[in-house]
Design brief:
This protein is an all-alpha fold. The protein has 2 domains: 1-36, no CATH class; 41-78, no CATH class. It is built from 2 helices and no strands. It is globular. The termini are far apart. 0% of the residues are buried.
Length: 83
Amino acid sequence: MLIAIDGDTGLSDLIRDFKRITAKTMKIRWQRNFFDHRLRHDESEDEKANYIRQNPSRAGLVETSQDWPYVIGIDDFDQPTGD
């Protein structure tokens, strides 16, 4: 998961609440811990997003990353039209 938060929000609290809500509503079983990584100035957001998208295929859950059905991108959200 790739998310952006302000500097005042506690990442651990945010992830805890997200996991709790999705576990209840979608019956998702989450691993106990998580690995967080803050993007540095020389790192590309697209590069990290592509790395994350490859995780299911690296884990052997699907043959290719395109086969993984649980991907939501920015294009999946309604965008303001500027009208």
